[in-house]
Amino acid sequence: MRFSGQKALVTGAAGGIGASIVTRLRAAGARVAVADRDVTGIEADAHLPGDLLDARYADALPLAAAGALGGLDIVVNNAGVITRGQVTDTSDADWSLSVGVNVEAPFRICRAAIPIMAEAGGGAIVNIASCWGLRPGPNHAVYCMTKAAIASLTQCMGRDHAHQGIRINAVCPNEVNTPMLRSGFARRGFDPDSAVAELGKTVPLGRIAEPEDIADVILFLASDAARYICGALIEVNGGKAVS
Ligand code: NAD
Fold this sequence. Notes:
GO molecular function, one term: oxidoreductase activity
Bound molecules: nicotinamide-adenine-dinucleotide
Largest sheet: 7 strands, parallel
Keywords: Oxidoreductase
CATH superfamily of the largest domain: NAD(P)-binding Rossmann-like Domain
Pfam families: adh_short_C2
InterPro entries: NAD(P)-bd_dom_sf, Sc_DH/Rdtase_CS, SDR_fam
Helix content: 40-55%
CATH architecture of the largest domain: 3-Layer(aba) Sandwich
Organism: Allomesorhizobium camelthorni
Number of strands: 7
Structural class: alpha/beta
CATH class of the largest domain: Alpha Beta
Order of helices and strands: EHEEHEHEHEHHHE
Number of domains: 2
């Protein structure tokens, strides 16, 4: 049980990748606090529902998790939203939503978690950026910008807080078979199963990622096996880099 005795907070726990992270962390011995707008029915050790756009909720989450679990060793900032379109298609609401969930909430959570972890001698934070945060794809200008922002913040925090024994890294997936991707296909009138199968043909490994493919890398980064990795952006793309 490589996470035996460790305490973890996972945001976006009700989503595709989030659910897989929670299941795997608990199976590996961690105690896990789950955060999402609705956490009903999720098997976990603490339930902390709320809206990450509420600054007071995001600011308070790490302490709430530490209080509920008896400490905090791991934070996974996984919650995210995707808005489509070029800048000229982007409403004020899309801007605020994307920046609020994808950048401001992880900033607030890291800012609150770091002193708790430092006081206890260290910890690990894993942020979920995107391959589109490294090299932007078309027609998702603000989404790409938010993922570049969290990637940059990860690099900065990874360097600034290493001396406190806190390792901060990010995973940068390409397409993953989750509600985020599938609902986008459905909204545009495509059958999600066929669209996912078609998309898989564009990936050198022959399929898009399943949530578990990403969760395993997140667990690696959170674990002692990654003890010398700090401020890294790990692309997980089945061989399909965005050019
Ligand atoms: P998902 O939509 O299945 O899950 C996202 C979760 O975040 C949802 O459960 C949602 O309720 C939660 N969330 C969103 N806004 C929130 C808010 N205001 N307050 C609280 N919770 C909120 O998506 P996923 O694919 O599992 O995405 C997980 C992460 O992976 C995201 O950061 C996403 O940007 C990133 N990512 C996904 C893909 C992909 O293709 N699916 C690719 C690259 C990166």
